[in-house]
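#lab-general

N.A. 3:47 PM
ok so I finally got the sequence cleaned up, no stray characters, all 404 residues accounted for. can someone with queue access submit it? mine expired

B.Y. 3:52 PM
send it over

N.A. 3:53 PM
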Amino acid sequence: MEQIKTSVTPYRWVVLVVFMFIIAMSQIMWMTFAPIARDAAAVYTAGNIGYIDLLAILAMLAWLPFCIPAAWCIDNFGLKRGAGIGVILIGLCGFMRIFAPNYGWLLVCMIGCAIAQPFVLNAFTKLASNWFPEDEEALASGLLTMSMFIGFTTVMFATDFILAHYRKVGTVEQGIDVILYVYGIPALISMILFFIFVKDKPEEPPNPIAAEKKVSMTVGLKSLFRNKDFLYLLGLFFIGVGSFNAILTKIDYIFKNRPLDIDSTLAPGIVGGLIVIGGIFGAVILSAFSDKYHKRKIFLILAAGMAIPLTLLLQHLSSIVLLGICGFVFGFFLISAMPVGLTYAVERTHPVPEATSNGILMLSGQISGLPIVFFFNMTAITVLFGAALLLALLMQDVKPGSTT
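B.Y. 4:20 PM
back already:
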């Protein structure tokens, strides 16, 4: 059997950094109005906050019709042209929001930003596989995951900060105009940088999987749902991503009417922020360890296993210091499971196209978030993490240097 020649280029970091910028902007685009919903409603919808809430929900809804087409485009057209569809939508729609004279214009732009989500987020493993060696793939996906939460954190803090300033020195409408400029111009710049610097793949593959000819999406989907380990992983994403989104969405509910050693209205912001910060660190640190030792299963077991006691503690502790520590550790372990799991899927399911497995896993987490939010109960979520732990224990780990 002919040995495949592989080589690694330092240009991979340029591609990764530009794509991290794109990912961060994608999160900023769809979350722009979430922290200032009431103010935006006063400007655009005569105080009807439901129409503003719809702008954030659009991104989740867009996954249902566009996830599979986005994965198909990435797998068939390549990283640059496939993900480029989403990048164009982010750049142009994000920039055009600046000139929105009414809610209708704004809604159209936000629909474009929502459709962009699966085109850019489904490209995580394609970029990692195309450009990075096996011992850096989870790290690359971890850095991309980190950029999601950097974007999320930026929009949650910067948006309210800018508007608070204009409430004092100007008007809310002026503040929202400034916010749209502050986010719209970088969105356009990110699109330009993408088409200047991002290439589909290097001249020589960095790892054996990247060199393999992939099967079609139809064949790949059939293969995925016949792969026992992938089905276990799919269950993990269904529980883990859905529960994480639900906890952040309903975090105010967790601390409602609970005796705490600080004002209970401050606890959701502090604990929620520390969950996200912990996730930023975990996505990079644990992904790097996963690559170093070429172990995936143990990190997925840790994520599910740690979530069980931590969700219990988040329900019952009264000390904000201890709650903050629990939130940080919870995010550190749980969010790191995403890049490790995405990398595991590529390794266990090839020659299924990377964006196909990536897309199905991400879609499962988006779908599960809706019922978990609707029927939100922290005790039930703890039980779900117990089921996730069993699924992780049943999985077969990848072997160092193995592509089978």
